[in-house]
């Protein structure tokens, strides 16, 4: 039964809240929280972060005149309440589904989403861009960036804050401190002081004090400035932000609308320097199952609102690739004390929570700082350790300069475990691991592998552990494996050697990664048409198995490459190898199947692969076209 939301029912846009009293805003927040819980219970998605910012969302849209005033949410996984208030309530139960609302902010979705986000620490930089454009155009609208304390561990946030004062005089940064509190609130006095120092009276007094101090000798001017800053810093903890040029306000209770609303109103009027409003919130606030969960129900499947119990598969599922990686890394580390693991704020997402439980002293979570993670791993490798940097494909993009400069050029044996390779379903384009084959494979000396199944992934972990003279990487997807048994004794692979999985003679399918199972199904479809297909697992994109590729080219009329990556990756490497060896001179028909040259919107992964043409039907259809046969439906499922 949906929650009763009489006041929320009257809100179709933020402007409807501008005349609300604080008691009405409190009621609105309660109803908005209930609506968010009910919606996510039906769709799954990010829950805890959104529940923590309900009051903040209400206050921001009440105080600021969005969308004319610019409101940017860092990362965006906390923006579900924002979407409900900004005219998307009727679609909120389509979150993260095909054709539905994105799980993050998205410019094409609403004018209330001025900047799309799904990676951390971009909000302040983007906000400064909006400020500079506004100032150049002579406009006076406000710009607000909301950033979490986790995102503040990323260097990009400080790079932006370092330039803020030089860029503009009107910017509000709201620091949403919901986990590792920088400075805990100290009750009513803290709220009172925050309200006081953000108000016009204090600002006026401060300006008078500065005016008086300016007439003093230079040493006394500096002494007066520091005395005022540190006096406030003792109460607010904001001296660091002041040194960056921000006017610091806080910490304040981010769930107390009586305090939050007037402070935001004060901040809105400050236009001589950027302002940082430090709010302390509780992730999962107002929903007991979230408040009591270790992860505050950060990301959930569909769940029962009353109990908080999440839906589970009815049948036992094969192990997740992430777990297979973690378990094999633990096995390798038990035999080799030099193996260490690095994650960038994703211990559970990468499986390194399991490794950390077994080897806490050999596990390093560097926070949302992929650049630091890569160079930190390089330093470990340079001093004789065996680092495994477990980073999502889409997040490794953020550390690519360090991969090139600090790892590859120096030939340091950093091992990159590239999780979430390929399409990721409901998270959509922002988290899809589409480009790592191309950007990692372009680097001289890099060894690049992709696992076709769980057993192959375990062997690639062992292979990477044994490589001690150059960098290596192995990629694997989100989700469940194939159910294949993993040997008790896992042996490393021979570098640069693929394998023939099925012998045929009409054409060859060369797969790189977990599309091998679909390639085998495609071979079955072709066999039903009387066409015998060889199916091979490349295993390596770099170095390529040249002997295998030339054999496939020599013995077959057509060669189809299949990969879960963008153009310019494995297929391009194979084409270049064929061309350089003259294998294209004899009329070989080659097709390279990659992800389409678009950013695919969220959907179920299997549907996304069908759209990409990387399912069995799509592979078989391209094979038939390459052989000059009619492109009629292979199974009758396609038109």
Tell me what you see in this structure.
With 639 residues, the protein is an alpha/beta fold. The chain has 3 domains: 8-300, Rossmann fold; 321-475, Rossmann fold, CATH 3.40.50; 499-626, Rossmann fold, CATH 3.40.50. The protein has 25 helices and 19 strands. The strands form 4 sheets. Strands 9-8-10-11-13-12-17 form a 7-stranded mixed sheet, sandwiched between helices. Helix 13 runs parallel beside helix 15 (352-358). Residues 180-186 and 229-236 have low confidence and may be disordered.
The tally of structural domains comes to 3
Strand order, main sheet: write it out: 9-8-10-11-13-12-17
CATH fold type of the largest domain? Rossmann fold
Radius of gyration: 28 Å
Mean pLDDT: 90
- The general outline is globular
The CATH class name of the largest domain reads Alpha Beta
Helix-strand makeup class: alpha/beta
CATH architecture of the largest domain: 3-Layer(aba) Sandwich
Tell me about the largest β-sheet.
Answer: 7 strands, mixed
Stretches where pLDDT is under 50 for at least 5 consecutive residues are 180-186, 229-236
Query: How many helix segments?
Result: 25
Helicity level: 40-55%
Ends apart, CA distance between termini: 41 Å
Strand coverage percent: 5-15%
What is the tally of beta strands?
Answer: 19
Determine the CATH superfamily of the largest domain.
Answer: Thiamin diphosphate (ThDP)-binding fold, Pyr/PP domains
């Amino acid at each position: 039964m949906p929650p009763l939301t009489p006041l929320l029912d009257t809100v179709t846009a933020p402007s409807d809240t501008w005349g609300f009293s604080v008691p009405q805003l409190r009621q609105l927040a309660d109803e908005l929280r209930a609506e968010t819980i009910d919606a996510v219970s039906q769709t799954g998605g990010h829950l805890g972060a959104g529940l923590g910012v309900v009051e903040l969302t209400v206050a921001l849209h009440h105080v600021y005149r969005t969308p004319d005033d610019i409101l940017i949410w860092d990362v965006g996984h906390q923006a579900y309440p924002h979407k409900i208030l900004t005219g998307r309530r009727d679609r909120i139960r389509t979150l993260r589904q095909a054709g539905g609302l994105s799980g993050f902010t998205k410019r094409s979705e609403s004018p209330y989403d001025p900047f799309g986000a799904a990676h951390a620490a971009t909000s302040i930089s983007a906000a400064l861009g909006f400020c500079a454009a506004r100032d150049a155009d002579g406009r006076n609208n406000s710009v607000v960036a909301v950033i979490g304390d986790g995102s503040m561990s990323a260097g990009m946030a400080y790079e932006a804050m370092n330039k803020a004062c030089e860029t503009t005089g009107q910017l509000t940064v709201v620091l949403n401190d919901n986990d590792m509190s920088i400075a805990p609130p100290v009750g009513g006095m803290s709220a009172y002081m925050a309200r006081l120092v953000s108000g016009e009276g204090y600002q006026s007094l401060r300006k008078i004090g500065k005016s008086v101090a300016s007439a003093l000798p230079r040493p006394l001017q500096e002494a007066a400035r520091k005395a005022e800053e540190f006096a406030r810093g003792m109460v607010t903890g904001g001296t660091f932000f002041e040194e960056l040029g921000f006017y610091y306000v806080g910490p304040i209770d981010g769930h107390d609308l009586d305090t939050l609303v007037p402070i935001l109103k004060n901040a809105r009027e400050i236009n001589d320097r950027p302002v940082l409003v430090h709010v302390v919130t509780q992730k999962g606030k107002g929903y007991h199952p979230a408040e009591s969960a270790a992860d505050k129900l950060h990301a959930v499947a569909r769940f029962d609102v009353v109990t908080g119990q999440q839906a589970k598969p009815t049948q036992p599922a094969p192990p997740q690739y992430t777990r297979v990686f973690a378990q094999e890394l633990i096995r390798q580390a038990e035999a080799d004390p030099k193996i260490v693991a690095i994650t960038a704020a994703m211990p559970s997402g990468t499986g390194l929570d399991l490794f950390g439980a077994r080897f806490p002293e050999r596990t390093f979570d560097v926070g949302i700082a992929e650049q630091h993670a890569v160079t930190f791993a390089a330093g470990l490798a340079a001093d004789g350790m065996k680092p495994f940097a477990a980073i999502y494909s889409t997040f490794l993009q953020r550390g690519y300069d360090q991969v090139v400069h600090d790892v590859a050029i120096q030939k340091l044996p950093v091992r990159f475990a590239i999780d979430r390779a390929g399409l990721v379903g409901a998270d959509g384009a922002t988290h899809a691991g589409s480009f790592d084959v191309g950007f990692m494979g372009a680097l001289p000396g890099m060894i690049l592998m992709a696992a076709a199944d769980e057993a192959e992934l375990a062997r690639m972990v062992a292979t990477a552990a044994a490589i001690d003279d150059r960098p290596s990487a192995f990629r694997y997807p989100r989700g469940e494996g194939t159910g294949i048994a993993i040997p008790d004794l896992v042996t490393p692979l021979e570098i640069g050697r693929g394998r023939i999985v099925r012998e045929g003679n009409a054409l060859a399918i060369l797969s790189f990664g977990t599309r091998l199972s679909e390639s085998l199904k495609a071979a079955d479809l072709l066999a039903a048409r009387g066409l015998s297909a060889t199916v091979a697992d490349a295993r390596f994109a770099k170095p390529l198995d040249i002997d295998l590729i030339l054999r496939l080219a020599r013995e077959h009329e057509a060669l189809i490459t299949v990969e879960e990556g963008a153009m310019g990756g494995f297929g391009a490497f194979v084409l270049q190898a064929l061309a350089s060896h003259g294998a294209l001179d004899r009329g070989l028909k080659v097709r390279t199947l990659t992800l389409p040259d678009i950013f695919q919107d969220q959907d179920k992964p299997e549907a996304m692969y069908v759209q990409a043409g990387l399912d069995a039907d799509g592979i078989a259809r391209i094979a038939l076209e390459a052989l000059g046969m009619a492109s009629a439906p292979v199974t009758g499922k396609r038109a």
